[in-house]
Specification:
Shape: elongated
Number of domains: 2
Structural class: alpha/beta
Radius of gyration: 19 Å
CATH superfamily of the largest domain: Fe-S cluster assembly (FSCA)
Number of strands: 7
Mean pLDDT: 90
Low-confidence stretches: 2-10
Helix content: 25-40%
Order of helices and strands: HHEEHEHEHEEE
């Protein structure tokens, strides 16, 4: 017969799993194929006394989707039956493109965005110049503009398939 402590641990694990599952269903408003979990913006989830606290680190401090993401996270967890949800925006640990999961990188490419190179905290100019085309996998690409439609993207051109495409900038 499981002890009360064992049952409490099992319940916490089950609740934690429910929260993470809910988060996996929250999509980035700008890239609807990728979840906030796959994007790597959720460093921590805590559940204390039935209250869920989610820490979210934005991709950029001025991310225009920040409020939408916070509200989508809150709604998804409330829909799982939790009574109180708090989403805290944090900058420590800082977000890095290295936090994007392999599945997230695959989905970025599927969306037509070149995934960022792994940078291990050190971004170089080559990481912006030497980008593989997400459409044809050619490395014969040219950086057209460091400034894309959002802060986290740059615009490139593929000399092989002649497609313009965006790169998710490494950070």
């Amino acid at each position: 017969m499981p002890s009360d402590a064992d049952q409490m641990i099992e319940q916490r694990t089950s609740d934690t799993d429910r929260v993470w599952t809910a988060l996996e269903n929250v999509k980035d408003p700008e890239i609807p194929l990728i979840s906030v979990v796959e994007l790597g913006v959720i460093p921590e989830v805590r559940i204390e006394d039935g209250r869920v606290t989610v820490r979210m680190c934005p991709t950029f401090a001025g991310c225009p989707a920040l409020d939408v993401m916070r509200e989508d996270i809150r709604k998804a967890i409330l829909a799982e039956g939790f009574g109180a949800v708090q989403v805290d925006v944090v900058f420590d640990p800082p977000w890095s493109t290295d936090r994007i999961t392999p599945e997230g990188r695959r989905k970025l490419k599927e969306f037509g965005l070149a995934p960022p190179a792994k940078c291990n905290g050190s971004v170089t100019g080559d990481m912006l110049d030497q980008v593989v085309c997400p459409y044809c996998d050619s490395d014969r690409t040219t950086l057209e503009s460091i400034f894309g439609p959002t802060l986290c993207r740059a615009i490139h051109y593929c000399n092989s398939c002649r497609q313009s495409f965006e790169q998710f900038k490494p950070v």
